[in-house]
Amino acid sequence: MENQGHGTVGGMAHVTKKEIVKQIAERANLTQLQTKEIVQWTFDAIVETLVTEGRIELRNFGVFEVKRRKPRRARNPRTNEPVEVEAKNVVTFQPGKIMEERVRQMKTSSEPKRKPRKNSRASESDEGEDHEEVVVGAGAPMNGTAGANHTLVDGTTGAPLKPR
């Protein structure tokens, strides 16, 4: 999608849902209101599948998966006091090969300006994994879906992808 002069984050174009809706509406010859509903239904379906199944595979795009983070001890950066962080569910995203390749070949005028984290949450088990974390409500059920078939975006089920 083109950067149409909108805001940037770290030197990269910052695109909102509203801008995505506008572009899809123009391409699909739909009103922005119709398109906004469809886009929201899509997001809702992804979230609902994550809550009920724990995983959703969008072929040629990537895989979203709910993972459980163990409780841990951390430090309050303001007071330097130790604090207990409860176990929580997080959403991980593993990009598909096509997305990964396109992003790898992307030409940027400058590197994103990102401050390194002072307290990295990466554990030994996360090293080498390429994913972003987004917190999901701690009460989201996991349903023990390890090794089970998972719902695909077209409504069919399929076996989990093997790690690359």
Describe the structure.
- This protein has 164 residues and is α+β, with helices and mostly antiparallel strands.
- It has two domains: 1-53, no CATH class; 56-110 and 131-144, HU Protein, Chain A (Irregular).
- 26% of the residues lie in helices and 24% in strands.
- It contains three helices and ten strands.
- The strands form four sheets. The protein has a four-stranded antiparallel β-sheet with strand order 3-4-7-8. Strands 1-2 form a two-stranded antiparallel sheet.
- A hairpin with a 6-residue loop joins strand 5 and strand 6 (82-85).
- The longest helix has 22 residues, at 32-53.
- The protein is extended and about 55 Å long.
- 7% of the residues are buried.
- InterPro entries: Hist_DNA-bd, IHF-like_DNA-bd_dom_sf.
- Residues 96-164 are annotated as: Disordered.
- This is DNA-binding protein.
Which key terms come to mind for this protein?
two-stranded antiparallel sheet; 24% strand; extended; disordered C terminus; 3 helices; 164 residues; disordered N terminus; 2 domains; alpha+beta; Hist_DNA-bd; HU Protein, Chain A
